Amino acid sequence: MKLNCFGRNSERSMYELSSDEMQAVREAWKRAKEREIGKHILRALIERKPQFKDYFGIHVDEKNNDVYSCKEFQLQSHRIQNFLDTAVSSLGFCPIGNIHQMAYRIGQIHFYRGVNFGADNWLTFKKVTVEIVTQDGNSSESTSIDLKSIPSIFPRDSNTVTIIGWEKFMSSVIREMKRGFLDEARRNCHDEETRF
């Protein structure tokens, strides 16, 4: 018998969103997507870790050194925003498994496109997304919490619920993307071994 100090039934339940968290995620997204949030997320990723340009295939010529106006930047920022829009719009209306399947498939696609993020890059992607989506559109100051602390010590104000909801949501999405990538890598490794 496992002793569970946090009152959770399983590892999977730690990613489950409460109805309040789900509503807070949807409300924050509704505000964020009006700000072309995909561009803000990708811009912040590149500013924090310039290698994200390479991961997303963003290359600029010497004449036009503006990364943010190049075609590849625009395309990738739309992909990020469209994925998040589809996933968040599905929350509460479709089983969470559908969102996870979509994230899993994106992980598989990342394998075939050679987008192999390390753990630090996945954490950066999650942190940037949560910060930018949950920040007030009028403020340049980002909002973040230390998730190493037990969430129950925080007051249950709407901003905290929103941040915790987005942390849980992005954790589950990224977990599935990583799983999709790894499963596809294993499948291809096994296929290579059986050819000889």
Compact overview of the structure:
With 196 residues, this protein is mainly α.
Name some characteristics of this structure.
196 residues, mainly alpha, 0% strand, Globin/Proto, heme binding, metal-binding, GLOBIN domain-containing protein
Broad structural category: mainly alpha
Low-confidence runs of at least 5 consecutive residues: 1-10, 138-156
N-to-C CA distance: 45 Å
Summarize the main sheet.
Answer: none
Rg over alpha carbons: 18 Å
Strand content: under 5%
Helicity range = 55-70%
InterPro entries: Globin, Globin-like_sf, Globin/Proto, Mb-like_M
Pfam families: Globin
Domain Globin: 16-182
Family: Belongs to the globin family.
Task: Give your account of this protein's structure.
The chain is mainly alpha-helical and 196 residues long. Helix content is 63%, strand content 0%. The chain is built from seven helices and no strands. The chain has helices at 19-33, 37-48, 52-55, 71-90, 96-113, 119-134, 158-195.
